[in-house]
Amino acid sequence: MKTTVADERPEQPDADEAAGRLAVLWRRLLRDLRNPLFLNGYALMANTGVTAVLGMGYWLLAARLYSPEDFGRSQALITAMRLFAGLIALGLTGALARFIPVAGKRTGALISGGYLVATLTAVVAAGGFLLTLPFWGANYATLAGTGPGLFFLASVAIWSVFTLQDVTLAGMRKAVWVPVNSLCFGLVKMGLLVALAGALPDDGIYVSWIVPTALALIPINLFIFCVLVPRHAKLAPAGSRPPRPREIGRFLAGDYPGAFSILAIVYFLPVYVASRVSGEMFGYFAMAQTLGAMIELLAINMATSLTVAGSADRSQLAANCRQALRRSYLIIGPVSLVTVVAAPLILSVFGPGFSEHGTPLLRLMALAVLPRVLIEIYLSALRARSRARGLALVQIGLAVLVLSSSLILLPVAGITSVGYGMLFSELLVALLIFGGLRKILQHAETPQPASAREAPEAASWSS
Known about the structure:
Layout: H1 5-8, H2 15-33, H3 36-65, H4 68-103, H5 107-131, H6 146-171, H7 177-199, H8 204-234, H9 245-274, H10 279-312, H11 317-348, H12 352-384, H13 388-413, H14 417-442, H15 455-461
Helix pairs in contact: 3-7, 3-10, 4-5, 4-6, 4-8, 4-9, 4-10, 5-6, 6-8, 7-8, 9-10, 9-13, 10-11, 10-12, 11-12, 12-13, 12-14, 13-14
């Protein structure tokens, strides 16, 4: 049988085919970046990546420059500060994401009102915490006294506004500025951490966290109120109706109980753990929990962008949900897998104690993010449709499950109990809401007048 020269050539990879695939991926990325949903979502995910990288660098320096006890105690103080700062601010993030896209000329008043309410409530709640310091254990004893107490109250007020400004940028579809802000904030924070290691060996971590935050508020909010808000109001569609106070109040009445429940998981649970363990052990817990929460933020950020896009055009909600779900798993799936495999290596860079005590917790949290994607997409679809009853039901149920299971297991499993509680609870809730999510993914929705969207429908969506 006669062979040809072509038959004798060894098989080569099809370079043209590979180049074609890269070109398709590049065109798809460019198309996504022209879509406000994905531009906002990718920007917020990029912010999570920037925060994760700089955060790891920051805590790596802190672990090297400060004692394990001071490291853990500072983590406890930062967690308590974020708990009270988010007491109302985290509840308002959903409302701002929902109503800023349609607020029009009232956008500035909506944002500034949110800032004011969040700050005042947070300071009052933090004041109550300072009055009950003996209950919260040795890790919080350094807040006793007028000077430390006032600094703590100021830091709570600062972080309240800082919490809301990112979602404000996302609500006006300018989330591309969020990672820029995080980059500058992270670099300044790291520099100050090093500078204060000798001057403030006990409190340098906490001070280096708060001072750059306060400095970052000034330029970002000048940009928001002097540039973005007037532009957003000017570009409001003709005939658009800003949200009425009653409409916002009705949304918050349904959304806030759920947001408060999530706050209990993210911040109250660590504060409680800090009150029951040593500063050194809490440092191990907090590092693993921080890294796990960064992965979880990837899901939450895409969901926030989905809320904004769904509020502006509900007819595309089903399609946006499907696309956001696919892209979320394309990004989060590999990140979760790598974290599970490499958890000991990741934590070992902070020291042997972190790897030994924190690896099981980080692995469990990385696995828990996978069902959390389904939950966050479902919750954002409910927010976009103003389904407050369903929001509260899912979030309160999740919080009750996580808190109860974690606290029950704490005396037995130690700091790893939180990981077991989160994985079990989020798997169970994802199974319970799967039917409702499938309905949203399968059925496109046509715009309806407000009178046609009543509360009874919310119950069917949350079933």
